[in-house]
Specification:
Layout: E1 12-16, H1 25-32, E2 37-40, H2 45-51, H3 66-79, E3 82-84, E4 88-92, E5 102-105, E6 113-117, H4 119-129, E7 134-138, H5 151-163, E8 166-169, H6 172-181, H7 185-216, H8 221-246, H9 251-254, H10 269-273
Parallel strand pairs: 1-2, 1-7, 2-3, 7-8
Antiparallel strand pairs: 4-5, 4-6
């Protein structure tokens, strides 16, 4: 993805979805420096809506990311980047495939949770990608594993298909791996989830280590060993998960994948953030 975005054909539109703002911190920061328009959907959108002062009911919320969301909205405005959030949502009283969709505009009642983007939002997002030169799409617009709440994600996919833009979905490496393994839609989604889980675990591990580095003001050999151990464990678990979703007939192909290529660069941000607080001589460790 990085190589494709060094010099994108403009207008450059980024479409971000998924559950958590924290999973996309590095991505959003990076895209604000490059994109002309950023579209936010999925569960992460509700933290941004809360930051704008809207009521979001029982929707997914990362309360510790509200200030970050406010900062990103302000940064986008200052840079002249269009930052689009849902204006209506399909909601439900419970997180269930059988839940009845309720269309809500504006504030979400306290007894409901957002599950998918509504028709006005679908139209707004489709208009935003129309005429784009380059589009990056990472993450669903709603709880697409439930058929009743997959409408927004399908509409977004159709809008991208109709746009005629250079489109990158989930990153080139992921797409290539899915193609190489010959995965159907369900297995391709399992593959993406396994990679996302790996990155989330690595990010959490690096944040814990970064906190200890900041406290000790040194990168000790013990912390270095722990980082490598966490990395090895996450990679091993991901190989197992991908192997399971690919099936026994594709396990040889799974073993050929280079999972290092799928590590999101943003997982290293916690370490980069404490770099200036560390004694450079400490990285050599002791023998």
């Amino acid at each position: 993805m990085g190589k494709a975005l060094d010099n994108p054909v403009r207008p450059f539109v980024a479409v971000l979805g998924g559950a958590k703002v924290s999973d996309k911190i590095g991505v959003i920061n990076n895209l604000l420096e490059k994109a002309d328009t950023i579209i936010i959907g999925g569960g992460m959108a509700y933290t941004f809506k809360k930051a704008q002062g809207f009521e979001i009911g029982k929707s997914l919320l990362e309360a510790d990311r509200i200030d970050y969301a406010k900062d990103m909205i302000a940064k986008a405005e200052a840079k002249g980047v269009k930052f689009l959030l849902p204006v209506d949502n399909y909601c439900a009283a419970e997180f269930s495939a059988d839940a009845e969709p309720v269309l809500v505009e504006g504030n979400i009642p306290e007894n409901l949770m957002g599950m998918d983007i509504g028709p006005k939002t679908q139209e707004m997002f489709a208009a935003a990608v129309k005429g784009a030169g380059t589009i990056v799409w990472n993450g669903p617009m709603g709880v697409f594993e439930f058929d009743k709440f997959a409408v927004g994600t399908k509409a977004m996919a159709q809008a991208l298909a109709d746009s005629g833009a250079i489109t990158i979905v989930g990153g080139g490496d992921s797409a290539a791996a899915v193609e190489k393994l010959g995965l159907d839609e369900e297995r391709a989604q399992s593959f993406s989830e396994a990679v996302d889980t790996m990155n989330e675990k690595l990010r959490e591990s690096m944040q814990l280590v970064a906190d200890e580095i900041a406290s000790a003001k040194a990168m000790t050999p013990e912390l270095g060993v722990r980082l490598m151990g966490d990395l090895s464990t996450s990679l091993a678990e991901t190989y197992d998960a991908i192997g399971a979703c690919a099936g026994e007939d594709r396990r040889d192909q799974v073993s050929e994948l280079q999972l290092f290529d799928f590590i999101d660069p943003s997982v290293a941000e916690p370490l980069i953030a404490v770099q200036d607080k560390v004694d450079p001589n400490s990285f050599g460790g002791s023998r």
